[in-house]
Every structure is written in C-alpha cells, then in structure tokens.
Amino acid sequence: MNTLFQVSRRPLSFVLPVMGLMGAFIGLFIGPAFGSALIGIIFGSLVAVILAYGISATEYLRPKVVRLLLPVLLAALGFLLLGLFGSFCGALIGWFFGWFFYWIYEGGYRIKLHAYLTSNQVLWHYSFRVICGLIFIFLITPILVVMPLSFNAQNFFTFTPEMLRFDPAGYSLKHYKDFFSNDEWQRSFWNSLIIAPIATIISVSLGTLAAIGLSQSHVPAKRAIMAILISPMIVPLIISATGMFFFYSTMGNFMENTLGLDKNFVGYVKVVLAHAVLGIPFVIITVTATLVGFDTSLTRAAANMGANPITTFFRVQMPLIFPGVVSGGLFAFITSFDEVVVVMFIGSASQKTLPWQMFIGLREQISPTILAVATILVCISVALLMTLEMLRRRSERLRGITPG
Q: How confident is the model at residue 59 (pLDDT cuts 50, 70, 90)?
C-alpha cells in the first residue's frame, strides 16, 4: 500500500472547491423538495464550503468526533425542515460528508493509488468512477422509484406527503391485494406462467441442439446459419410480430379447420411457438459461448469407451455445458414472460399475458396495481440475475477459471 500521501493534508484551495462541488451535487437532488433544483445547488454548495472550512479550523476536534457530530446535527436540521424523512436524509448526508471531507483533506484518495500518478491521472481515475456511478444511477433510479410507490395508500403514481414523512398511514398493501384478488390480473398472470415455461423448454431444446451442431467443424456455412438463427433478436420486434401474424394465422386456420383443434388451444400453441422463436437466439448464444472452452476430446474418449451419442451427450457434454444451457433458458424465460408486442398480434383475449394486462392498465384504466406488479417482476428478475451469476461462477470453476 502506498503511504506517501497518508499524513500530508491537502490545501484548502483544493479542498473547498471539491467540497462545494459535492454539496452542489447533493443539493441537485434535495432542491426539488424546496421547489427549485437551482436553489438546492446554490444552498448545498454554500453549506458544504462553510462546513468544510469550519471543520478544518477546529483542529482540536478529532476526526472521529466530527464524523459522529455531523450526522446528529444534519439529522436535527432535516427533521425541522422535512420531518422524519428529512432526519434520515440528514443523518445519511452528514455521515457521507464527514467521511468525504477527511478522505479529501487528509489525502486518503491517494493512499491506494500508485505514487507516480500525476494529478491529471488521479483526476481521471476518480472521474471515470463518478461517470460510471452516474450512469448506474440513471439506469437504476426508475426501477427503485417504482418499488416504494407500490405501497402507496392512495391511488396515485407519485409520492404523497404521508409517504415522505414515513407516516404509516401513507403506506398500504392494497395494490398487492388487488393484484392477487382481481380475476383479470390473475388470469393474465397464470397465462404468463403457462406460456413462458413451455416456450422456454422448446427454446432450450432447439437452441442447445443448434448450438452443438454449429460447434462442429465440418458444418458448412456456419456463419450464415448462425445469422439466420439469431435474426429474431436482431430484427425489430414489430417486423417479427407482423410476419408471425400472417404465418401463424395461416397455421391456426389449418389446425382449426383441418385438424379440428379447439380455437383456444390453438391460440396458446401459436403464442408458445412465437415466444420460443424469440427465445432460441439467447439459448444459442449462451450455449455457443460455453462450448468455446469445451474439450472435444472428452466426447471422443466416451465414444472409444463404447458410449453411444445420446449417452455421451447426457453423461459427458451436458454436465459441462449445463450452466450455459440454464443461462440461455433463463434469458428465454424472461423474454417470453416480459414480451407484449408479439402476443398482441398473435394471441386473443384468452391468451392475455401479464405484460399485456399491464399495457391495458396504463392505456385504459390507469391502475396503480401496475406498480405492485412491476415490483413483483423486478424481484423475479433480480432472483433470475442472481441465479445467472451463480451459474457463471460455477461455469468458470468447471473450466478452471477463478471467478472475478
């Protein structure tokens, strides 16, 4: 660890502008609560500079004491201005301010960096991380906002004063209750649970076989075949939905008029096949990526030992590529579970899925139940992503790569 800058304190000509920028950034988010982001930026930068100068002038106070007092003082100020919510935000800002000030003032930002880095290199080092953090906030904020709004006691899509004060009267589970008790929502939810798993099984079966076939060296025109197989992922969805509409309508008429199958059953078949087509490219890509590190000598060794191709596949090849197969299946499941355009073109009211019902709720009913459904879908997606990460780590361990 580099300790060259551990004891040297930065000059106030450097510390105060940095703290002012930090206070302006915090004020950008707090300002709207007082009616203007500009006021928040100005007020936040001034308060940050004043606090930073005051802390630097009180040499007799230890850093630990300052970092304990700041959250208390800002929590009390926040309580006077915005109540309990303001108190929580004030304590959080006070803790961050104390840590950030001493991190800058005592040169802590250079402790873990190489001593030979110039000031511009250090600036870019942290600027890059700030940019990445802002992008992450930009992407994740719309998702995080939905979750607390799903517990709103009122039929609003905005935070009520009671919610901002953390008043228990402002929170309710009525939107979740409406989701689990409403026949339309439950019918669409069960339709999604029926269609998505079946489409996933078809996608995984066909996609895995296609990926294994394309991994063989003797297959001609592999690039062209791969491009055709993954085209549903590349072509705009509205174009794919239009083509599927004409194709599956003809197929549906044949199944109903010639084979005499039930119209409702035919509708489910069309939607399942259409979603399977959309999921196959994800399976092909993930399984192909897994097969890149596969040792083909294992299959030849199994054949020399007398195993037939089916036994070789299930006993030798499948255990090694299983993480990629499951990852592709999860992507195919998410694609089917979240898809709304194709099912609107191909399906009927009997095959109404959960995303379709959410679209109707936004366009026709403006139902706040959508917020509860969105939160449930976010939780499902997070669980699937965690599963994908565990499978990725398992795949790397099997291939002799230490997970990073």
A: low
| Torsional sign, CA 256, 260, 261, 264 | positive
Q: How far apart are CA 185 and CA 163, in angstroms?
A: 26
**Sign of the dihedral defined by the CA atoms of residues 341, 343, 349, 355, in that order:** negative
Domains and CATH numbers, the chain: 12-117 (no CATH), 182-398 (1.10.3720.10)
| Nearest-angstrom CA–CA distance, 329 and 203 | 7
Helix ranges (H only) for 111-173 are: 119-149, 161-164
Question: Is the pLDDT confidence value at 109 over 60?
Answer: yes
And the tokens for 86? Answer: 């303001």
Q: Given this model, what pLDDT does residue 128 score? A: 92
Global pTM value: 0.72
Nearest to 7 by CA among 140, 73, 105: 105
Tell me which of 238 and 397 has the higher pLDDT: 238
Give the Cα separation of 394 and 401 in Å (integer). Answer: 9
Q: Using one digit for the tens of pLDDT, what is the confidence trace for 196-219?
A: 999 999 999 999 999 888 887 788
Q: Is 368 helix (H, G, I), strand (E, B) or coil?
A: coil
133 to 41, 101, 140, 148: CA distances (angstroms): 19, 19, 10, 22
Residues of the chain by 3-state class (helix, strand, coil), percent to 5: 80, 0, 20
Contact 74, 97 (CB under 8 A): yes
